[in-house]
Design goal:
Number of domains of chain A: 1
Largest sheet of chain A: 6 strands, parallel
Oligomer: homodimer
Low-confidence stretches of chain A: none
Strand content of chain A: 25-35%
Largest interface: A-B, 58 and 58 residues
CATH topology of chain A: Alpha/beta knot
Number of helices of chain A: 6
CATH superfamily of chain A: SPOUT methyltransferase, trefoil knot domain
Mean pLDDT of chain A: 97
């Protein structure tokens, strides 16, 4: 099963850091890649590519202009669309059903207002609390619950840098080159 | 037991939206309040206060200039300090021990580089994956695991607006006034 994150409606000035965080969360918590839509922003793409180069992968980073065709195509190819939104069904009620399907998954998170058609095309509209929220927070909780914590011990390949957990202080090792 | 989030090192231009997201996550996922340090930014404080006014509380929002005195005072008053950092111990190894203590908790998340003394004064330095990460994502996963999902059904008081979960579409009710 593959799992990608689709970030909709990116606005470079306003969303640069949030979209970068969405990408970091997707990578750190087990997604296979992120697809960014909205206004093209090479800045975000480069900073995520730099993370993969230094800390390992695989983790795909793509930009797509026409998100509507993209989600239609994913759906036609049998992927399940899961839209994270405060208006959706509580994650605690649906996560087991979502996990029980072996279909590939596209997790959609919006920046600006999400078009109605996304709610309609999605197989699941899922809320991580029904309170005003952060797409970063929702995505992180979704991935942690979806993968049931297994994502936290994922081994990345091709890393140049790696953190060795410490009670206090910082320890980073560098791969022999 | 009380649980507050301390956001260190806020820089208004760069961190405004991220710090706002940290506040939204803290509120939505069960914290009793957020304390923001770094450069004072009324913009963030007002937008979080607006959320509490519309969507309910209680949820405290404070700014503090001298974070060092603050964490010393919390520690002297018997609070446990938990610093979320990529360099710390894996959350999956320590969350049960952290949860088993009934002490009040201060969860510390940094923006810019976190001073060494924070690592030293903290009772726990905790990593949500040992990968480059987002403080938003780390905080969300920490709170969800700490409260074991109970935070997702928290009832807020004094709300004017409330979301009613839907399979598709949006439903918001307004309190009678």
């Amino acid at each position: 099963m593959r799992l990608y994150v689709l970030r909709l409606g990116h606005r470079p000035a306003r969303d640069r850091r949030i979209t970068t965080h969405v990408g970091l969360i997707a990578r750190a918590l087990g997604a296979d890649g992120i697809i960014i839509s909205g206004d093209r922003d090479d800045n975000v793409i480069k900073s995520l590519e730099k993370v993969v180069e230094l800390w390992g992968g695989p983790f795909e980073i793509q930009y797509v202009e026409d998100w509507y065709s993209l989600i239609k195509r994913f759906k036609e190819n049998g992927w399940e669309l899961i839209h994270l939104t405060v208006y959706g069904l509580p994650i605690q009620d649906v996560i087991d059903s979502i996990r029980s399907s072996s279909k590939d998954k596209l997790i959609i998170v919006g920046a600006s207002k999400v078009p109605r058609v996304v709610y309609e095309l999605s197989d699941w509209n899922v809320a991580v609390s029904s309170q005003p929220h952060s797409e970063c927070g929702s995505l992180a909780v979704f991935l942690d619950r979806f993968f049931q914590g297994k994502e936290l011990s994922k081994e990345f390949k091709g890393w140049k840098l790696k953190v060795i957990p410490q009670t206090r202080g910082k320890k980073v090792v560098r791969a022999e080159s």
